[in-house]
Design goal:
10% helix; 6-stranded mixed beta sheet; F-box domain-containing protein; 42% strand
Length: 499
């Protein structure tokens, strides 16, 4: 009988590239030979979850040494275990990064891999947090050009920033800007304008939009037909910023989904993991509408796109799409509200898109500002949340399916305090602080691609921070699941708490 030790190294490495961090680490712990194999090969660098590693500033997955990367994988796995099995996350250490004189002190728009995007009266700025309790600032744009929609990602030692800007055209059509900003030591702050193109049909006069950035693609879904009297619809614009190519469509619904929803813009939009497509929820006219409508749009290939150097730029074509409609609530005696922030998008074994969305039965017992996603029982702890697992089949013939689960969230005993309410955090999402005197944080713990029920985990904040700073001064919170860290952004600087 053959043994694993008899397999060629190449076969072992190919096998490990198809599993997650947990399996790779467990494999490396079986013997010293396999530990050395994991460290010396590209198994960790090319694993499915390599983007979750917290590696030192200035290094990439290609340049970091194997031993340091292996330690980062162990740290990532240890935090994932704490998140999966603990009811309460306790801080291990924390530090305060005080703003220097060059750091902007205004609205934070996005955070990615310890890079923060700020919008100030002087335009867009990047603030990079290093591992030495330091910060570096890069000025990106002038204030008069930015409209309000931006996204960014980190690829290697570069930040890719996409944002919508105003134009000088009489029609006030918006422009998409995509910049590549270097974080390399020798070229730090150098900027290359990759895309600077008008999006036909998307105007400043009336629009709402979702802007998504992943790898080489930028997608914009927004209001089409902004002029007075024109019929409005949803514009889908996608471009490959590396190849300077794009394509745009006006979406036309080809199914009988009813007219209780708006065609102008989505309520939210996401890329589908491991698939070249975008999924979005249609914006409903009524926030408590029991019907939820989901649409998946395939991103066209580069051969189907036109060059952005083409003059004139082609007008958007029309694209028919099939929506999946789900009537989730049958109890019309209660009021429900869709929660837009907590959601999980994944692909199942059959290739269908599976989506977890959440709704709540709102409680009036809350000291938060209106519009926040706080949901509490009279005791001040999270209450009943309705979770819907929606299956959107890839082929048009099978019927869409959904599974509903009502979850009475029961936090650990640590949450049952005199605190009147909690700030709800969602993994890798920027959350505003709508409370003046609340000192409680809870994180929605659910691993991506998991069918397990979500639960709230108590996030302990260091007592020194609570004693020294007013809670109302904490403007934004961001929980970085890859690093197991919480960023608390206040007027004077940023608290970085490691769990």
């Amino acid at each position: 009988m053959g043994h694993l030790n008899d397999l060629a190294v190449e076969i072992v490495v190919m096998t490990m590239l198809n599993v997650g961090i947990r399996d790779i680490v467990h494999f490396s712990q079986t013997c010293s030979r396999y530990r050395e194999l994991v460290i010396s090969t590209k198994v960790l660098r090319r694993s499915r979850e390599s983007d979750k590693f917290d590696i030192p500033f200035g290094t990439t997955l290609e340049t970091i040494d194997g031993e340091t990367l292996f330690k980062a994988a162990l740290e990532t796995l240890a935090f994932q275990s704490r998140l999966s099995f603990s009811d309460r996350l306790v801080p291990r250490r924390w530090e305060f990064i005080q703003y220097d004189q060059n750091t902007p002190r205004s609205r934070v728009l996005a955070i990615c891999d310890n890079v923060l995007l700020y919008f100030t009266t002087n335009g867009l700025h990047l603030v990079i947090l290093t591992h030495q309790n330091q910060q570096k600032t890069i000025s990106v744009t002038e204030s008069e050009t930015f409209i309000g929609y931006a996204d960014m990602t980190k690829i290697g030692n570069s930040v890719i920033l996409a944002f919508l800007a105003s134009s000088e055209s009489p029609s006030r059509q918006l422009r998409l800007h995509v910049k590549e900003i270097s974080l390399e030591q020798d070229t730090f702050g150098n900027q290359i304008m990759r895309i600077n193109s008008v999006i036909h049909g998307l105007s400043e006069s009336f629009f709402k939009a979702e802007l998504l950035l992943r790898d080489d693609h930028v997608c914009v879904l927004g209001t089409w037909g902004a002029t007075h009297g024109a019929s409005r619809g949803t514009l889908f614009f996608v471009c490959n910023w590396r190849k300077n190519k794009a394509k745009s469509f006006v979406l036309c619904d080809s199914t009988e989904t009813g007219r209780s929803w708006s065609t102008s813009f989505p309520a939210w939009a996401d890329f589908i993991p491991d698939r070249n497509s975008v999924i979005f929820q249609h914006n409903t006219v009524f926030f408590d509408d029991p019907k939820i409508i989901i649409t998946e749009i395939m991103i066209p290939g580069d051969q189907e796109m036109y060059s952005l150097d083409t003059s004139p730029i082609p007008e958007p074509g029309r694209m028919a799409f099939k929506s999946s409609s789900f009537v989730c609530f049958n109890d019309y005696t209660k009021s429900y509200e869709w929660l837009l922030c907590p959601r999980v998008v994944r692909i199942d074994e059959s290739g269908d898109a599976v989506l977890d969305v959440f709704a709540r039965e709102p409680s009036a017992n809350s000291d938060s500002d209106s519009g926040s996603d706080d949901c509490t029982t009279p005791d001040g702890i999270p209450g009943t949340v309705h979770r819907f697992t929606l299956r959107c089949p890839q082929s048009p013939s099978p019927k869409s399916e959904f599974e509903a689960t009502s979850i009475v969230l029961s936090p650990s005993s640590e949450l049952r305090s005199e605190t009147s309410a909690f700030v709800h955090l969602y993994p890798d999402q920027l959350v505003g602080n709508g409370h003046l005197s609340v000192e409680g944080l809870v994180l929605l713990a659910q691993e991506p691609h998991s069918l397990s029920k979500p639960r709230w985990v108590n996030i302990s904040v260091p007592k020194e921070i609570i004693d020294e700073y007013r809670w109302r001064d904490m403007g934004k919170f961001y929980f970085d699941v890859a690093r197991g860290s919480l960023l608390m952004i206040c007027r004077d600087g940023i608290f970085c708490v490691q769990y």
